[in-house]
Amino acid sequence: MLKMKKNKLSRRDFVQLSGLASTSLLVPGFLKCSENKILINESLSHRKLVVIQLSGGNDGLNTVVPYRNDVYYSSRPSLAISRSNILDLDGEMGLNGEMRAMKKIYDEGYMSIINNVGYPNPNRSHFRSLDIWHTASNSDEYLKSGWLGNYLDSTCSDCKSPHKVIEVDGTLSLAVKGRKNNGIAVENPALLHKTVSDPLVRKLATNSSIGAAERASSYLYKTLIQTASSADYIYEKSKIYRSSLAYPANNELAKKLRVVSELIISGIDTSVFYVSMSGYDTHIKQQAQHDKLLQFMSDAVGLFCLDLEKNGKLDDTMIVVFSEFGRRVKENASSGTDHGTANNMFIINKNLKKAGIYNETPDLNNLDSGDLKFKTDFRSVYATVLENWLGSNSQAILGREFDKLKFI
Amino acid sequence: MTGTHQRRLQHLLWRAGFGPSISDLKEYGNLSLPAVVDTLFRKSASPDFITINPKFDVEAIHRKGLTMEELRVIRNESINGLKKLNLSWLLKMARSDKQLLEKMTLFWHGHFACVNHSYKHVELYLNTLHKHALGNFATMLKEVAKEPAMLTFLNNRQNRKQQPNENFARELLELFTLGIGNYSEKDIKEAARAFTGWSYSENGDFEVQERFHDYEIKHFMGKSGNFGGEDIIDIILENKQTARFISEKVYVFLVSEEINERHIDQITDAFYDSSYEISVLLKEIFNSEWFYDDAIIGNRIKSPVELIVSFTRKFGITYEDPAPLLYIQRLLGQVLLQPPNVAGWNYGRNWIDSSSLLARMQFAKFIVRGAVIDIKAKSDDSKEMEEVMQMMEDINENRFRKVRAKLNIKDYMDRYAKLPRDKMTEEIEAYLLQCSLNSGAVKVLRETEQNAQKLLEEYSLQVLSLPEYQLC
Asked: Which of A149, A198, A331, A335 gets the most CB atoms within 10 Å of its CB?
């Protein structure tokens, strides 16, 4: 323990002493990123993962529709989508008619739809279920770090580059917060650059040192310096390529994916991008809202893929789309649907081992008090992506072993 | 008052409350620290409860044959009650003389984390926490377990002999008392049986519904008997691990994220030997020499609520409309009455990431200069949140992103304005900061000192915008 003697030094003396002491120690450990390399397969480091979160609980049954199933129609007298509005996939299932852009991707063989994804003892609270998806926890477990944050930690235990994992948003989700490192939230590279160009931030970031690790102030300065340096880097990259495609300005997801595609095409050194789109909590008068949401989502994903394809980057990119839960099979009294359980996920990539409908479709005759039963643990999807796409050690990141799927 | 004494005094006031005000420094400046501790307890001796809407009819929602419109009106009234409850409590924390009581109420709110849509039930729950926050932990635990908000949140109301619901029993053991690894799955099942039938009447009074209660023998932690819920709690409290678990959590909240086993042993013994008197536990902490160790002082990250409350207190702020404070809570990641889950908030480094740090550094400017908050909080799009924080749909409206505040800084001016320049800056730093400055911060402040036109104002605002100000 430190003795109170230190108080005899004035505050400024102390600062100067500690400042001198730490600058010389600062550079090597801070700039290098050498630890834990064993966990990562370097040859795959050009690969990108883009995670799209549909917040609010997307109605999976009206997204990928079991349009030959009578139970579907009888459960949803006002909400069931008529056959004429279905984009058929395999004669049994079809996409919501608004999802033409994603249907095209499906037809190219670039999409795999995984059905009945969930976890045991599902929680129907948005917060809690999102937490579970973000932290890859069991439903009765409370973890403090997210799966992609843990991935960031595993690539480099005290690294200089939070921009390895970028969330295109104003604030950061738990999913991208690690135990040691956090990803960085960037809604707009120019805006973030402006914020860190504030004279105070700039001067602090340039002239400060990071002191002893056990001091909370060191943690704050580490975060500040990393943020400033990543913000500059991201901003520089964002100026290299401007997309010529017309991403619609009223489509939030499209705007965010435009940021992502421009950064990827500019050659940014980022492995994971995280974006979310909200509005899926459709308890009341679902149809028109939901159709619009799916159209926006599908258009945004379609443009994004087109942009990457034109620039030769689609091969390096995998897109994963999820929502915190699906919705009940039966519609409610307000022409909407309430919180449910298992749901489908979309995986998009040019080199899928198994494109199309990946596994058995939802069994509407065998429900758990009105909800779909889950068949595939979402953490198996995570494990597969971490291991087989990003080349990392999924067991170390997720804290336990999950079966890998065979889509990649 | 010597510099060392001021720093230690401020440390105590930061940890046992929401930081020093100028009048605190005047009042406590010449007292010994143990005398200050005693004063803090004396001031916090009796609770003062919040009642937002005494006319609110808690039974109305149960009335049969309500139309959609009537239901909507009742719900809206409840939402408004919750918003007002949030803001009233926030401002009460800042203005109250019962600083220690308010601080510990905040702690227990995170410990017994609970979310509920019924404003009245949340108010009852909050007042119960407040009533017992410095009292006896055993009593508080039993009272909280019987709160309608808790009975609903952890599904004890659905816990019936015919079909036990283990949610409350599990969290009781895992999060409220023993901590994970100190009980078996069988213990959870048996405890759940003892809590079967726990419920409340329409007016919110606790009741055990006999037809749903399991009167058979339960086998819990090596004991057997026809246990009810309170018996289970008594058995849990006999186990010293409960005292240890609570002591550790209080230590992390008030002292340090870094656990020191020797300190924990010491405070656990005091707490357990007093049969769970919270004041004994706290005095053991505040009167220990290690509490004032240099490694402890200035090494704690203020939570968002602590940041808002302490700032409001320090500068005597009145808000023309406090609603934007809801937005700021949301933006910084801690909304009162909306803990993220039953495990409560993670205090410490978890508060800080790239965006929250930049937002915190602009916080003083938002308040003092009335700058528009140009950072977008996440739209959670969850019904729970929407119901409680309906206004968040309008987050793009400036009125929720612009704070109109009046500062009352007469005592601050009186104390510092007349000092010579170098003395002034030194004293401001000593008052506003608990940790030493980084070299970059020193450079920034020296420049401000040299160039400022209005030194007191500009220098203060610069100090309040430093990363160092995030610590206490």
From this structure: A149
